[in-house]
Amino acid sequence: MTILIRSPRSNAADEAAIERIYASPRDLLSALAGWCACLLLLGLLSTTIAPSYNWDLVPYVALAGERDETTSRAWHEQTWRDLASAVPGTHLALLRGAVAPDAGERSGDILQFRRRVAEDPIALEQQLPFYAVKPAYPLAIRGLVAIGLEPVRAAFAISVAGWFALGLALFALLRVSFRLWVALGLLGVFMALPMVRALGGFATPDSWCAALLVAGMVALTVSRPRYVSALVFFVFAVLVRPDSLLLLLPIAAVLAIGGCVSWRVAASAALIGALCFFAQSTLSGNYGWLTLMHYSFVDYDPYPRWALQRVGLSELLQIYWSQFGHTRQFFWFLALGGGLTLLAVRTRWLWPLLALLAYMGAHWLVFPDQKDRMLVGAYLVIVAAAAQLSLRWLIGLPRLRVLLATSPEAR
Known about the structure:
The protein is mainly alpha-helical. The protein is built from 23 helices and no strands. It is globular.
């Protein structure tokens, strides 16, 4: 029925049939109509996306401005003018530290931190390496600002565009296995999930990272996999978020082990990704992982470059322990992915799922405060795989299998 649950022999037998599906002009028009329907559905769903004015917006808007040592005060003032022109008053007050955020025990620390950053250009400038290490997003904002768009609107426009790209990639992943109407229905359900819909409203590069991850998985799981194309998608994901190297490395390894690409190709992709990672870290002036952990979980320091506080081993273990209770959803998805891997032993999904699980586990160790937006791409791949397997296992009616199958030859 689907490429996900077929044996390798069945997949090979279907390749000629799948090529014939889009051989005629009529079939090409049908495919074009399907993509148009996908865009229309995404357009309707996008009307429900609401901007999220979280604090990440401040440094990304700041990175869009020109600054040097002689103009730091003017740059700081312009940053807050740009924010004030587009952010509603109540949200702007939260960003400035005029109103305490609802953050439990850390509300007071966050309040003092935001006030200091709003008052002192040096404090704001010292936050930028945490964000400049993800260069594609601020560069895209600067590009839109150069053609006349305001920085805040530019940031949200890029996130929404990434959300659309994610929807298109997910539709392609579903279309590998399902007929058009089933793929559109599942796409509507998945893209309407709160964690996915909210992704388009965050002023972060996470929607584009998720889109590249899903696109890479499409390249790995189509009838004739495009392994090198998948590696290219994952390399670009490193430029969007450097922690995507945690996915590129296991993907390159499993493709080489499985004989899908040569070791030379896999090693080249891994090396390019690693060089991108180190170049981003060096050029951005990033403070390092231990400083990030201290900054995120122990103390919001407005001057991290001067303090350079780092967590020790005991603090690190305490952080991991404290985050278990806050990341239950992550472990549910990890468990679901593990179960799917066992069911996908004789399919092309086996190696991608193994690499995905390795990525998720490593990501939790690197940053255990797993906000939904950081791993939305991985979660969507898992639920798409679960949908394909459950429809194959739970629905035993042959005629219904025919309706759900992509290829007419599957009948």
